[in-house]
Write a structure and sequence with these properties.
There is one protein chain. By secondary structure, this protein is mainly β. Strands 1, 2, 3, 4, 5, 6, 7, 8 and 9 form a nine-stranded antiparallel beta sheet that branches. A hairpin with a 5-residue loop joins β5 and β6. The two termini are about 20 Å apart.
């Protein structure tokens, strides 16, 4: 067993592909703990900011800390559904699920993202 503590001033900024009008920070990288399967990030989306509608590479969880985010999810038949999420709401989706998100509110939104990579055998 191992652990990694990240203080708020130690979050590492990074460029997230397909994201716009957002400041993304990495709290935990896969190589830092146990089998290297979890990525944990905190994103700060400006109003109108978001992420393109694309398939997820990994199993993922979005947790809204503050503000409002509209998450668009896709089905196999290309039908989409929008969910308006507020502080305390979360959404989970599996690998390959098409999803996108946009801050549809009038103030900045904070979203915690947890990505779970498959364990390499």
């Amino acid at each position: 067993m191992s652990y990694k503590v990240t203080m708020k001033n130690e979050a590492v900024p990074y460029e997230a592909p397909g994201h716009f009008d957002v400041r993304t920070t990495r709290l935990h990288n896969p190589a830092e703990v146990n089998e290297g399967t979890i990525v944990n990030g905190l994103s700060h989306f400006l109003p109108g900011g978001g992420a393109d509608y694309l398939p997820a590479n990994f199993e993922m969880i979005y947790y809204i800390i503050s503000g409002e985010m509209t998450v668009t999810m896709g089905n196999d038949d290309e039908t989409t559904t929008d969910y308006v999420l507020h502080a305390g709401d979360s959404v989970h989706f599996g690998p390959g699920t098409k999803r996108g998100c946009k801050n549809t509110g009038t103030e900045s939104a904070q979203m915690l993202t947890i990505m779970i990579k498959p364990i390499k055998k």
